Amino acid sequence: MKKWIVFMLTMVTAMSLTACGGASDSGSDTKTSSDAKTESDSGASDESDVEYVKGKGTLVVGITDFEPMDYKEDGDEWIGFDADMAKAFGESLGVDVEFVEIDWDNKIMELEGKTIDCVWNGMTLTDEVTSSMECSNAYCNNAQVVIVPADVADKYQDTESLSDLSFAAEAGSAGEAAINDLELECTPVKTQADALMEVKAGTSDAAVIDSLMAAAMVGEGTSYAELTYTCGLNDEEYGVGFRKGSDLAKALNDFFASSYADGSMMECAEKYGVQAAIIEQ
Questions:
Q1: The domain made up of 49-141+237-277 is a member of CATH 2.30.30.140
Q2: For the whole model, what pTM was predicted?
């Protein structure tokens, strides 16, 4: 009887050790597979954006309708200083350029989701932008300016005179941020052009837009001849944004430097009347 009990205990112990050994082996296999997956994921995240864009043959540029930087005139082709420079940059990489209109408030999400490869649309280099994107060097000076009907412009020549006005500004823009900083009433709209329409229609007293856009779209000889711009709210600089860590930013900085040196950047700027705002590269 004792021998039988000893035999049974020996068998149970052996089976337990075998089971434990099996679980250990299985766990080891699982860990190895997980490690391999992590290494694979890490490799994918470290992929060069330059090679990614060259591999698919297209640089997808996120924009809004913003004359004189990105806009359409007499057709479906996007033109403007930023659009033309983007096309030239794409050519330097050996890829086509595709322009995609985006909701400006979602620009960072669009980049991270890889629905676009860059934001190139007179984008102000704010703290939010530079902390969330890999940005190019600044290439253009700008300011946020107040737009009002021309017949009341003499009343609104400084920030102190703006307190009773209702404003419209593009959602997520530097213009909206400038209005909020002054703690003024602001209605966010989809684009800067929509902000101008709000003032023209009388649904907002004023708008805040980029000075470069104001120079092209407001005043005599434009679609908004009855509007004008008055005081500036800040000074700022434009840059191009890529995914955080992207090597496309350096590639663009090199392109900016060479195009400034050979005069092609200034030639493009003169075509769209923004030459005075260009920053030396």
A1: no
A2: 0.77
